[in-house]
Design a protein that fits this description.
CATH superfamily of the largest domain: Tetracycline Repressor, domain 2
Strand content: under 5%
CATH class of the largest domain: Mainly Alpha
Radius of gyration: 18 Å
Number of strands: 0
Helix content: 55-70%
CATH topology of the largest domain: Tetracycline Repressor, domain 2
Number of helices: 9
CATH architecture of the largest domain: Orthogonal Bundle
Order of helices and strands: HHHHHHHHH
Length: about 200
Amino acid sequence: MPVGDPPRTPARGRPVATSHGEIEQAAFRLFRQHGFARTTLDDIAREVGVGRRTLFRYYASKNDIPWGQFDRTLDGFRAILDRMPEDIPVHEAVHRGVLLFNDFPADARPSHRERMRLILTTPELQAHSVLRYAEWRHVIAEYVARRTGERPGDLLPRTVGRVSLAVALSAYDVWLDDEFAVLSDLLDASMRAVRRYLRS
């Protein structure tokens, strides 16, 4: 998921060698040319013009690079949900929150479509993605728990998190198959379809 690159503020006496954004752009160039599996961290370091150890200051592994600064992205998701009016139903708040969370700039580099295609279709990333999905679901579970007076590990918050993820991934599948599809429309339609199904 694309995230903005924070201002580069070097530590005193030690200039910043690169940035998260520069590493991501270099890595995605190599992923396009050679494929994810055949691209090594050493390849990425050479492309960026830094040492391998420098990369580890920004990303713990190659698998983390496609996800961008995901911890910061999740903080943004929490903030989105926390700003939801308390007088709207929980399901509506989660619906709106997921839509806002997935509203990415059209000029992101790499593009959101390229990033998500890599994440969702690369076998080598699937195990790592399971961990990231769990963190995303937990943000929703925390919010639902706060609104309902339950704990994040209780059945309802867990279920809302899992259903929300399944709905979002279904929308992404259709979006990646159709270059003319609008992601926000698909997310909105898929979430409304689930609500209609549950009411029936």
